[in-house]
Amino acid sequence: MWWYQHIIIVIVLLITITIVENVELNYLNNVNTLYFNENSQFKIIQFTDLHYGEGESTDWGPEQDINSTRVMNTILDFESPVDLIVFTGDLVTGNNVVSNATKYWQEAVQVAIDRSIPWIVAFGNHDDLSSGTGGSRDDLMAFDQSLGSLSQFGPLSIPGVSNYYINLQNSMHEMIGRLWVFDSGDGSCPPGNDGRFTGSKYQCNTYITNEQIQWYLNESDPTLFAMAFFHIPLQEYMDLWNYQTCFGYNNDSVACQPVNEGLYNAFEKVGDVKVVTVGHNHGNDYIGSIPGHNITMCYGRHSGYGGYGTWERGARVFQLQANPFTNDITYETWIRYETGQLQFQQPIHYPNQTNPQTQCTV
């Protein structure tokens, strides 16, 4: 009977390998592609920290959600046509939601649905904290996809859910760019929150891990222009404000990722990512780069009336321009406020070496 047992073991192993291969192939085949228009342009609107669903049993809670929708519609009216909306986290304040979180999720992305604008999502640390139904990261990603989003489940082999990329092609359908999305974690660790990993590293992290970085290194293409979107800023944002001349506001200090496993260095090693943009700190919208490093770091602009802070709401806009002869991509970026005001040149900030921030705030 020993040979019979060996045959059974071999069959089980083959089935297991086939399933794993199919999962990976399915993931790789689901990479979405968007296209530059006939003028070789591609416009991205970054909305961040909307925080729908706060105070759902109060008068002020639904009112601030209405205001958040108004902000997004106003900005989209001024910036039309728009090729992609990127929501960089905290679409909902899940820890305040006791009913179905998907209701508020749909309210947050409805502006994209109504206008038939493609959208993608990078999860924030508040999105999946709902005590109600449908509130896990997996639930919200599946629901987002069901609404028509281009967001994708990331590989099962790395922490987080919103780890994926979108390819950009020119009007001749040639690959010229890529938009990376990373899951920077939630920090909450509710039971079964992720459904993929056990242990605090994977459910409680609020940083981008080495496993995610290795995935990026394996999938990246140094010949492409790339941007990276996620929620919680890198520690290099703190260094940028402390020691470099940059532009914009830091009204909130930098609540950066508490562990730095080297994503910025990986971007620099590959050379594809030219822009990194985040959310999380509602009072920050500054932009700049470290001399000698070809990576621009920027914040979006707090878009929602949910969450803390009374700073004027808005969004960051990116206008990409492809050279039709060389396929090289350049870009401009600006802030569009809820009033419709456009700000190209943000206030200058000089190095803060006399009182530098030395640790990530919480």
UniProtKB/TrEMBL annotation:
One of the record's GO molecular function terms: hydrolase activity, acting on ester bonds
Lineage: superkingdom: Eukaryota
Signal peptide (residue range): 1-22
UniProtKB keywords: Signal
The keyword DNA-binding is annotated on this UniProt entry: no
SUPFAM superfamilies assigned: Metallo-dependent phosphatases (SSF56300)
Domain (Calcineurin-like phosphoesterase) ranges: 42-283
UniProt key word Lipid biosynthesis: no
GO cellular component: cytoplasm
Protein name, UniProt field: Metallophosphoesterase domain-containing protein
